[in-house]
């Protein structure tokens, strides 16, 4: 996938995997920082000894919302930049499923399939991605989601016929 694309190329990419991010290691420092930011200190996330003794995980696991939040970093890492874009907006999710826990010190990466692109108004395209987060060495993904974003651009840059 090119590093940069134009608005006119977007409709032709629907149905394609347009991004595969680099690996991110989810370590205990990251998990603890997220616990502090969200005030979610459940032992399965922050107490390695207890999590190893009392769960089937063998140690701590990342918060599901931590894994979800890493989609932003993965997006910036791998999705092509749109030349005409003036701003991007996170519109939300239609569906999120946490499929498998991310154990501490595992590596994860994001897969982004552009499932829909609709030009709206004079200067906006709504993009929908089917995303999944792969856990290195595991068959089941950490999560799957349908993510909707809005790309804003100057109306003079709108491709003809869309």
TrEMBL record:
Limits of the MaoC-like domain: 14-130
Organism of origin: Rhizobium daejeonense
Pfam families xref list: MaoC_dehydratas
Name of this chain's protein: MaoC family dehydratase
PANTHER family: MAOC-LIKE DEHYDRATASE DOMAIN-CONTAINING PROTEIN (PTHR42993:SF1)
CDD domains in alphabetical order: NodN
Taxonomic classification: Bacteria, Pseudomonadati, Pseudomonadota, Alphaproteobacteria, Hyphomicrobiales
Domain of life: Bacteria
Membrane-spanning intervals of the chain: none
